[in-house]
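Blackboard transcription, Thursday session:
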Amino acid sequence: MAVFKKVEETFLKGHKVFIPSVSIDCVIFGFHNNQLKVLLLKTLYAKEWALPGGFILKEEHVDDSAKRILEERTGLQDIFLQQFYTFGDPKRSDQVYARQMIKELQIDVPISNWLLQRFVSIGYYALVDFEAVNPTRDFFSESCDWHDIHELPEMIMDHRAIVDQALLTLRMHLNYHPVGYNLLQEKFTMPELQKLYETILDQKLDRRNFQRKMVSYGILKKLRERRKGVAHKSPFLYVFDLKKYHKALKDGFQTTW
Amino acid sequence: MAVFKKVEETFLKGHKVFIPSVSIDCVIFGFHNNQLKVLLLKTLYAKEWALPGGFILKEEHVDDSAKRILEERTGLQDIFLQQFYTFGDPKRSDQVYARQMIKELQIDVPISNWLLQRFVSIGYYALVDFEAVNPTRDFFSESCDWHDIHELPEMIMDHRAIVDQALLTLRMHLNYHPVGYNLLQEKFTMPELQKLYETILDQKLDRRNFQRKMVSYGILKKLRERRKGVAHKSPFLYVFDLKKYHKALKDGFQTTW
DNA sequence: CCAAAAGTGTTACAAGTACACCCATGT
DNA sequence: ACATGGGTGTACTTGTAACACTTTTGG
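(Written on the board underneath:)
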């Protein structure tokens, strides 16, 4: 059984390729049907779900580890990734689930095994195009699925707190870095962009003020095209003006002082 | 020689008490003579300076490790501490300096020694009362001193970049969390508070607008007392209204949306 | 008595908020 | 034809920026 082999190999040989004590957890946000979604893995040997995560190769930049983990779960490259916090509570206890696993799989693993040690976990959040993602489970899980941010299932360890922290950070960053580019299709309408903001911020925004503010950033290009086949008045399509978008990101959007 | 003993012990027995692969670096900010200062350690076996840092005890919360490290260097408890980024470039190479040390001290250490491995470092910044600090060196350094943020000496590894990142983060946080409370004496004048802000932000601010804005936060108490013995008109003293200060911190100062 | 710093107030402009009208589209 | 959502404009409120005058103090 391939899964068994792979899990056993990770337990027994992981310490040769990964650095110990440090893991990575990714909160992958997507947007679909006007809802903010998070990509989760159903654990094999527990009823809870888990964040896509992994370990850091001995000579790998931590950012690259996160990127690698993300590519494996989504099939996407060039993902928008942002480190947001490192979780260092000794009682996060990655061990509980790991112990359950070796018990279920009846792998012969000493208590000193690297995976049974305490882990500090570096949290990254990612913004991805929901449609483009091909959710792919890993060897420690039975499936990989999107979950509405408002209806998250039971999650292992402190993963729920990690999601909450990621969302808080994303909300903060929203003021500095317009995120639509990463979460929407190439072409989108203003109402769609607004729904995205409303969903992330979990509050209603004024239609007209939102439009004015977005336009004022000067990073959007309004197309002559309109969204077809929808009920009511057909809205205009927009795309990000990548040149101006990246320039604005570099210069920063807001400073107050 | 006590230093030798302690360093040797860390190399040889550190892996029994600390978790591997993870270190902590602290950027300790103080304010003195209208200048922003950073507390640095002069390394024993190199000409460069280093950030106060350390490792995480096996059962210790990472926040507590940072707190412990800070207490050891400053003699202060209850310090304002904020995790701001985790540095994970494999080429940060903590090893260079460690290797230099074992060469100088002629300690017999195998290449597999825990301290010669790659480290991921969690960055914390701290805001402390300059006057209250008693700078104390550790066993890897010959002295511990304040340095002006604008005149930093040569620093080991990526420590300079860590300081820069800490300062950037502090500037960002300034909009959300007024920091005067941690960096100034209990009683202070408005011009002193303004100097602090100007120093952190590295820009002049308008006297009158600054005062109005600060007062509008409603977290200061104006005393009847004035600063005595200074040239020119004596300025009023202020203290933080701790009750309102903490309430404001919890509620947040700014949200824009 | 004067230079330098501190206290205070006013005005102009930009940004954010609230709200109203008309238009296009599918049912 | 009409209900629903989309496009656009305008007044009001708040916040930020720029700026001037008076007061106090030590030298």
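Lecturer's comment: Residues 206, 208-209, 213, 216, 230-234 of chain B lie near DNA strand D (CB under 10 Å from a C1').
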